[in-house]
Structure of Aminotransferase:
Amino acid sequence: MGFLSDRLARVKPSPTIAMTTRAAELRAAGRDIIGLSAGEPDFDTPAHIREAAKAAIDQGHTRYTAVDGTPSLKRAIAAKFARENGLDYAPAQVTVGTGGKQILYNALVATLNEGDEVVIPAPYWVSYPDMVLLAGGRPVIVECGIEDGFRLSPEALAAAITPRTKWLILNSPSNPSGAGYDRAQMQALTDVLLDHPQVWVLSDDIYEHLVFDGFDFVTPAQVEPRLKDRVLTMNGVSKAYAMTGWRIGYGAGPEMLIRAMAKLQSQSTSNPCSISQYAAEAALEGPQDYIADSRAVFQRRRDLVVAVLNECPGIACPTPQGAFYVYPSIAGLIGRSSAAGTRIDSDEAFANALLEETGVAVVFGAAFGLSPHFRISYATGDEQLAEAVARIRRFCEGCN
């Protein structure tokens, strides 16, 4: 009998964290490394949010809270959904966790039985399939290539659904591609789901506010109210308000599901950090001008990255609708060799060679379920970003 759980063998460590760790090791060894692997805004948390956290400490809000969120934060979240998404949720239909990842994990563990299927469009955020596996489910991966705009089609969704399908995970705008679903595209998917009442939707809206060129964000329960009773809408403060380290995510859905998730959380982490909850409340209820300001910076960076990458031999880089990632194809580089003689036979080989030979850390596409691609996070300073894409261009020009 082995000591470690068989369940653990189903999953792999996060490739994004692995690449970020490797870049940090090289930097510590004295290498000039530019990290474009982590999905973390480089801005400071807005001042009024930081002040709210300090005030919470001074006022003694340093004790346990309700397991899945303070009543006042739940009210602020419900108000946010009503104000920004036209969704009516009572506080009892809201749950707060230690980051958006816990909301997703709680929902899957609380609902999946062995063999239940979860449809996941690829490219996907690296944690989705592993969370499903840990919960005993079976990920059903549907490839959505560059020719599809990295979006799931209604035909592909219908083909992937079986009697064992319990969830569809939908992330718009997407990590890693930045692709978003407009209202018509979302409506086409919800029309399919209306015909399959056993399928629930886990809508990951974490990049809701990071959309460009006038893109109109929509979420499934908003587009099709008849689906609301089988949708969990997940969001958080990490990306929109530069609060990644504060670890606050939240979700809203049917009260039966929310109670089940709270039951699970009560026997795992219990409540999220009390101070972070007061900070999140200030984020949702306070001034929102920070969002527009940061969005403008990210759009400028996106335009720079897309323009330079599309000048690189062997690379094709679509323009994303949102988030702070691009997901270029390196199909034109497969089979070639770098200037240092490294054979590029996969996107993982490309990412490793790029890091070792130029000091630029990116994440290879196979980690997100769709090759041959790589992901760049442009949530980094302008000067470093310009230098990084210049290095990538020189690397590609040196391939033969």
